[in-house]
Amino acid sequence: MEDLTVLREEVNKMATLVLSMLRNTFDGFMKHDSDILAGVLKDEERLNDTERSLTLSLVAIAKDKNADKNNIMLLSNIIEDLEEIGDYIKDMIERIEIKVEEKLLFSDDAVDEYKHLYNVVETELSDVEKALRMDDKNFARRILCVTENHVDNLVGKYRESHAQRLIAGVCLPRTCNMFLNLLDFTAQISHHTKAIARNISELK
Questions:
Q1: What is the model's pTM?
Q2: Are the CB atoms for 136 and 170 separated by under 8 Å?
Q3: What would be the CATH architecture of the domain defined by 4-202?
């Protein structure tokens, strides 16, 4: 039976994979590169397999009467949030692939807004991956010190400015919906990232 130390190493690798998936998805978005996106989808399958394997391992460890039930619960939460981030990345890729296939373009302002939002969330996820890998609870707590609703405020601001562009005829309704989807999916990634940081801060 695996112990929690070995399993935590696998969770660290899972977080590193998720971070790579987010970065590659953005790269595929910016380059309109379907091959990059296809590679991320293969990683998403690996992520799902890892989630199932780690969950089974946690269940097996939990059967030991001396097992650290609190850490098991916290690790289970982290694994679940990482898998959820993978699901949102997959949702993003589905929208981006349509954008690539139909040669749909975002306005320069929309691209700049999404790049800003992505950079904020990528930094959050990168910091969480580091906190998990370094087992640094204080660093995880510092991540949580950032205003909880910062990303939601950005999304609200960018939704409003995009609505104005739609009214002005700068973008098409179909492209607009894709842009809004990307904003919302990226915000959800931020929410799960913050949840992981909270769980890391409580690990022993």
A1: 0.94
A2: no
A3: Up-down Bundle (1.20)
